[in-house]
Design brief:
With 469 residues, this protein is α/β, with parallel strands linked by helices. It has two domains: 156 residues, Lyase, Ornithine Decarboxylase, Chain A, domain 1; 240 residues, TIM Barrel, CATH 3.20.20. It has 13 helices and 20 strands. Strand 2, helix 4 and strand 3 form a beta-alpha-beta unit. Helix 4 crosses helix 5 and helix 7 packs parallel to helix 8. It starts with 11 loop residues before the first helix and ends in a 9-residue tail after the last strand. Bound molecules: pyridoxal-5'-phosphate. Pyridoxal-5'-phosphate binds next to helix 13.
Length: 469
């Protein structure tokens, strides 16, 4: 059986770039294959969409680009040029942010930090988003005489949220407030922060409610926090056809049950649990089903009524209380702003009858944390009259698990060696999160793609400067 198609949603700029097949081949010829392509103009458009939503409120806001989503210098420089802030999670990201042009007062460091990172943060003079009590106490000890260091307290343990290894548990906030009072000449509490990797507005509303209570508690201690930092977690839209996604998921589950042709390789169940003639649980690829753009999710959150505040909308409560909203979007800012292009090496038949299309890259170069991607790679092969086929894409490592798709994918026709294969929407965590350099394969080159005066212009990621003509 030929699997249902799960077409990727493409930004019009990416679609236009891919429509020129000679241009894609020329890019591969010039920079080598595989290639990560980043589109700073799409980053800018995503940022504008979030800003439009925030500007409908009367409260002050700050967008901190979560650098961890991609190593790209192009994105970091685009964010700096746009006047937003940045969230860094390592010493290397801090260096990248400074090199991109962010001033210290527009940089915050998040995530768990050791003493070396705390020292680096102190010498750079940036805001520290404190993960735990050890960090807070150590920071107070390390601070040299001089102005107090701005800090946010990351909180976790909210009602209805799954347990988190990050943040200070709500039950331990009293200790944190005591430390802040004790060291008030060294530490300046800006406010409270959280990061929830969830699509659920209700969960965020709960966390916001708890953080607003904490702000009030802090005032009771003589502290004057004004910031509510809601972290990242705004979703991306991967699929162009939600019905295609559902049809594929259904075919996959039918195959897992043995009631239809198998769409899965080997013993893979993609997070599903098959027992007693049923498929249970949720799949690892659930995020690919989302159809709500980040700006819509943000608008919903700002309009959500806050239970402890007479049901007033979150945005209105921020305005009433003169609070600043901080956000740390990563994937929402780079949604659709990156693709990865590889090339077919050869096609072979496996012993189990499967058709394997071998590519010149590995699975970890285009998947996030080894989760199966439920959108189809795009094959830029010559059009033929032949009927569609179902294939597995295989990687170039000598590892059984290096199957780029561990599920059967519908392709319009069988590709030939040298044909480009495009992985859509890889900028958020897919490109950089888990990519290894096994077998001494070099990592893909990263190149920025700009659309200027009707032409696509390519430039190495490291060389891109916003505003250059
Ligand atoms: C503290 C913090 N802020 C922001 C982000 C960015 O999240 P997202 O890419 O989901 O927007 C992360 C991601 O892990 C994070 O840990």
């Amino acid at each position: 059986m030929i699997p249902p198609a799960v077409p990727a949603a493409l930004h019009p700029l990416v679609a236009a770039f891919l429509a020129d097949r000679d241009g894609v081949r020329a890019a591969l010829h010039r920079y080598g294959s595989p290639l990560h392509l980043v589109f700073p103009q799409i980053f800018t458009a995503n940022l504008a969409a979030l800003r439009t939503v925030l500007d409908t409120g009367a409260f002050r806001h700050r967008i901190c680009y979560a650098h961890k989503v991609n190593r790209s210098a192009t994105f970091a420089r685009t964010a700096a040029h746009a006047g937003i802030s940045v969230d860094v999670a390592s010493a290397a990201e801090l260096r990248s942010a400074l090199a991109a042009g962010f001033r210290a007062d527009r940089i915050e460091v998040t995530g768990p930090k050791g003493a070396a990172m705390l020292r680096a943060a102190l010498s750079a003079g940036i805001t520290v988003n404190v993960d735990n009590l050890w960090e807070l106490a150590t920071l107070a000890e390390l601070i040299p005489p001089g102005p107090a260091v701005p800090v946010l307290l990351r909180v976790s343990g909210f009602r209805g949220s799954s347990p988190s290894r990050f943040g200070i548990d709500l039950a331990d906030i009293a200790t944190a407030l005591d430390l802040l009072v004790l060291h008030r000449d060294r530490l300046r509490l800006l406010g409270f922060a959280f990061h929830l990797d969830t699509a659920a507005t209700t969960e965020r509303v709960n966390a916001v409610g708890d953080c607003l209570d904490l702000i009030e508690r802090a005032y009771g201690h003589g502290l004057t926090p004004t910031v509510l930092d809601i972290g990242g977690g705004l979703r991306q839209v991967f699929t162009a056809d939600a019905a295609g996604y559902d049809a594929y998921d259904h075919a996959l589950r039918t195959g897992l049950l043995g009631r239809g042709p198998a769409m899965h390789w080997g013993n893979n169940t993609f997070g599903y649990h098959v027992a007693e003639g049923m498929v249970h649980g949720g799949p690892v690829f659930h995020k690919y089903a989302n159809t709500e753009p980040a700006a819509t999710i943000l608008a919903e959150l700002l309009a959500a009524p806050l239970p402890g505040h007479g049901g007033r909308a979150l945005g209105a409560v921020l305005t009433d209380n003169l609070l600043d909203l901080w956000l740390e979007p990563g994937k929402a800012l780079v949604d659709h702003a990156g693709i990865t292009v590889a090339q077919v090496e050869f096609v072979k038949q496996a012993g189990n009858g499967a058709t394997l299309v071998h590519l010149d890259l590995s699975r970890d170069t285009v998947t996030a944390a080894d989760q199966e991607v439920l959108i189809d790679p795009i094959v830029l092969a010559a059009d033929t009259e032949s009927p569609p086929v179902g294939v597995y894409f295989a990687g170039h490592l000598c590892l059984e698990r290096d199957l780029i798709t561990q599920r059967k994918v519908r392709v319009a026709n069988l590709p030939a060696p040298g044909d480009p294969v495009v992985f859509a929407n890889t900028a958020a965590y897919h490109m950089d999160l888990s990519a290894a350099q096994a077998s001494m394969h070099p990592g893909p080159t990263k190149v920025a793609v700009l659309h200027r005066e009707g032409q696509f212009v390519l430039c190495p990621d490291a060389d891109y400067r916003p505003g250059d003509r």
